[in-house]
Each structure stands twice: as structure tokens, then as C-alpha cells.
Automatic annotation (TrEMBL):
Keyword Membrane: yes
Organism: Dinoroseobacter shibae (strain DSM 16493 / NCIMB 14021 / DFL 12)
UniProt superkingdom: Bacteria
Protein name: DUF3429 domain-containing protein
InterPro entries hit by this protein: DUF3429 (IPR021836)
Transmembrane segments: 7-35, 47-68, 75-95, 101-120, 132-149
Lineage, broadest ranks: Bacteria, Pseudomonadati, Pseudomonadota, Alphaproteobacteria, Rhodobacterales
Keyword Membrane: yes
Amino acid sequence: MNDIPRSALILGLAGLIPFLFGAGTLVLPGLAAFGMEVFGPRFIGPYVQIFYGTIILAFMSGVLWGFATKATGTVATTGYGLSVIPALWAFFTVGGGSANALTNLIAGFIGLLALDYLFWRQGLAPRWWMHLRVLLTAIVVACLAVGVVV
């Protein structure tokens, strides 16, 4: 983890807050009551996880698109095509109740990790990229899983 730039690590970890808070409000009634009072119902439990998870998958599509700009020819074309998959996945699969939406987000984040690996193997992502992405993805998937099982 020492090779991850400090700012990328801090911002990546900060980006976990909505996932962690959502999972926390599912298992800690006091935190849920606090969240409901301070932030409202959209920002607790599975609602914040689904809303934020959808946004992050779309954001990560943009990150992959940026990586594709480093390539040329068919590698670039393939990269651009693959980069839109996380956003489209979220758009078309998130719905049908919270358990279904969270399960599809879990699949989306696991699929995103596979795309991260592909771009990284092609030398389009920074050398430290997979260390950061594996850490963040593991925590995101664990948080979303809380929403599926609770």
C-alpha cells in the first residue's frame, strides 16, 4: 500500500464513507435514527448505498474512459467500449427493490474490478492502481452485502 499516492488513498478511503454509513445504519438503530434526523431517509440504509453506488459506477466509467485515452488503435476502441459498461450496468440493473439493486451493484463493482485489472495489465492505469482498487472494492462489496443480508 506504500506505493499508492497519499492523496489518492485518502480520497479513495473518504469515498467509502457513504457505503460505510449506509451499512452502519442498517445494523445500528441509533445511527439510523441519527441519520434519519440529520440527513433524512434518502441518506440511510440501502437508499444511500444504492444512490451512491450508482454514482460511483458511473464515475468509474469516466476513469476507465480516461485510461482508454492513453491507448491507440483497436486497444483504444476496445477501451472506450469497455469503459461505458459500469455506467450502463448501473443504469439498466439497479432497481426492483433494495436487495436486487444491491446485489446488482455488488456484481457491478466486481465486474469493474475485472475491468480495472484489464486496463492495468495493458499499462493504461498507474502501477499502484490495483492495490487501491482491490482495497476499495472489498470494502464496498462488504458494505453492500450488509444491505442484502439485513
